[in-house]
Amino acid sequence: MNQHLLVSIAQEHGLPVYVYDASKITSQYQRLTQAFSAVKKLKINYAVKALNNINVLKIFKKLGSGLDTVSIQEVLLGLEAGFDPHEIIYTPNGVSMEEIEQVAAMGVQINIDNLSILEQFGQKHPNIPVCIRINPHVMAGGNSKISVGHIDSKFGISIHQTPHIKRIVTLTKMHINGIHMHTGSDILDVDTFLRATEILLDVVKEFDTIEFVDFGSGFKVPYKEGDIATDVEELGEKLSARFNDFCVEYGKDLCLMFEPGKFLVSAAGSFLTKVNVIKQTTSTVFAGVDSGFNHLIRPMFYDSYHHIVNISNPEGKERYYSVVGYICETDTFASNRKINEIRENDILCFNNAGAYSYTMASNYNSRYRPAEVLVKDGKAFLIRERETFEDLIRNQVILDI
Predict the structure, then answer these.
(1) Structural domain tally of the chain?
(2) Strands, E, within 121-232: which ranges?
């Protein structure tokens, strides 16, 4: 994103602030759909949990995307953004039967990932179509917290329990219209993904009522120059050919679905902070910013890398800094990172801040969550106001003590 525009946004809307580039979101969506253009029926369902601002959801609605949701609240956000219920798939984990029934009553596609709920739902609502989330027992993904297809994962029904699924379907006469998997995020090896695909397609063969196959997502995006990323073009070529052949074997054209989040919005996001203080210790130069893991927890939680640029002194001599936050715990964004000379009051830009950044923000230390800005057609629009003290106490019930 243009650095001069980012500086002007910081000056107009204050810091810290999240900024999203609508054109980058669009190009990533188009890149993915083009990679799978050989498939007759393709549906991309954007993962709302990555970035849930309603204005961003409206961009995906205009692009023709559906939505992947994991809570009734995300479903409601999707409806508020203008999506029809049939354009939304709901894939919860560990939620109550009551919530699943509420979402089903809205007309949203249900995706169930455990045998207990599957049987209960089938007994009560045999006529409501259900997708089944399978655990393929394929380890894919980067950090262990985002690898969800391994044998000890809490997500999905084990492929070894397929006979149990079939027994439930036979006894309840419920309608299974989709099969789903998600192996994890930051997938590097296309062949590993294709191996999981074969496992998933073997499950599809066990049912004659399937209308779509959801391959999840988890495409790795680059975080710095020279970083490895999922080759979606290679995956598109190989998976499209295999899927088309499978549709012939199955006897009808199935819909191929994906549910990307990070791939679509990560690179579109920038997080801007102000440098409060430069602190020199015996061996380290700290740049302390007006933010912390209350705003961007990914480096602390996932050990994730975010490239940091000093956009107010881009020509300064490079030096090594540890960029840290203002939270009363260790909250290090980067250690001994080479950055153009940082001065107090400079503006630092964290790249790849579009996914799992604002949506994971909190009010820890009673700090306010930042504002959000969308850049569309070269213009910047405020799409979420910065929180105030009134937001902190809005739902507190104050007693006369």
Answers:
(1) 2
(2) 130-135, 157-158, 176-181, 212-214
290-329 confidence digits (pLDDT tens) = 999 999 999 999 999 999 999 999 999 999 999 999 999 9
Most distant pair of Cα atoms in the chain: their distance: 72
Where in the sequence numbering do the catalytic residues fall? Answer: 328
Q: Does 11 reside within a domain? A: no
> What are the φ/ψ torsions at residue 336 (nearest 5 degrees)?
45, 50
The range of the structural domain enclosing residue 287 comes to: 269-386
220 with 301, same domain? no
What single DSSP character describes residue 361? Answer: -
Question: Predicted confidence band at 155 (pLDDT cuts at 50, 70, 90)?
Answer: confident
CATH code of the domain in which 319 resides? 2.40.37.10
Q: Which two tokens stand for residue 288?
A: 């302390």
Number of H helices, E strands in the chain: 12, 18
pLDDT at position 184 over 70: no
CA 56 to chain centroid, in Å, comes to 13
Residue 305 and residue 165 share a domain = no
Q: Are residues 101 and 250 in the same domain?
A: yes
With beta carbons less than 8 A apart as the criterion, state whether 375 and 337 touch. no
- pTM here is 0.94
Distances (CA, A) of 391 to 292, 373, 382, 394, 396: 19, 19, 18, 5, 10
Residue pLDDT, tens place only, 285-298: 999 999 999 999 99
82-91: pLDDT as tens digits: 999 999 999 9
Are residue 197 and residue 314 in the same domain, yes or no?
no
